[in-house]
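Risk register update: the risk of archive-format incompatibility is retired. Evidence:
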Amino acid sequence: MSIFSKIKDAIFGGAAHAAPASPTGAEPTPASSTILEQAATTAPPIGGTGQVPPTAGGAAPASSATSSAVEVAPILDAAVARSGQKLDWKHSIVDLMKALGMDASLAERRELAEELAYTGEKDGSAEMNIWLHKALLKKLSENGGKVPAELLD
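Archived output:
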């Protein structure tokens, strides 16, 4: 999985978990209840916990979180708060990645630079990191993320 995909999934997946309850939430609909009951009697438990894997009728598509714009700023603000660190995700690619619990090493940033088509030296310079941060936020915006306008300049 690409570094961008990991970042996108960490942000957009967080939005899916924070979304209000839907028919596929805590209370199954009659149709999904039947499918879940069938799965419970035919599927082996996962990890011995008695949980059954999600079924086609009982799980929302992975892309449902991105069908409408996902507010990026509150998700990253919450990630920073959970991290317990003083991180400036709005200005630092390293801090943004750390907030999401990712490896922000030079090797990871080089890989992200390749994915986002950075053409300069991939040496971890301030120039590279600033470019990566802006390019990442732009790409998140292009992929269904609602990024504050002042961060896209």
